[in-house]
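The authors assume throughout that readers already know how a fold can be written as discrete tokens. Each protein is reduced to its one-letter sequence and a matching series of backbone shape codes. I therefore recommend that a typical entry be quoted early in the introduction. For illustration, here is how one protein appears when written out as sequence plus structure tokens:
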Amino acid sequence: MEKSALILFAHGARDPEWANPMRRVRAAVLQRNPSLRVELAFLEFMSPNLGDCARALVEEGYEAISVVPMFIAQGGHLKNDVPVLMDELRNAHPDIRFVLSLPVGEAEAIVQAMATYAIGLTGNI
């Protein structure tokens, strides 16, 4: 069985508090699956970046790494930058299986959760 890990990959920001929701998602994943290795990586402004995060996991013996973009939709970064980053990972670590998912905001469960949240706010109008 492959030793697998999960990278929650977010944009990053200059304000360190920006990452708090990502940390909460990571904690929720670990609460549901304590044996899963879950790390955060960032595109810019914060560390670790995707390459450094993946490299550390590879050095620890992980053979399959799923990358989950913590973005609402596919914009320029996901269309242009992320494919290049994934190619770099695959070239640097050809024996490792890297899987890139759709951005979380495009998952139907997330779309429905956002709709439920928005509808719930109508009581405050």
Observations:
- The beta strands are 4-10, 37-42, 64-69, 97-100.
- DSSP finds four helices and four strands in the chain.
- The mean pLDDT is 95.
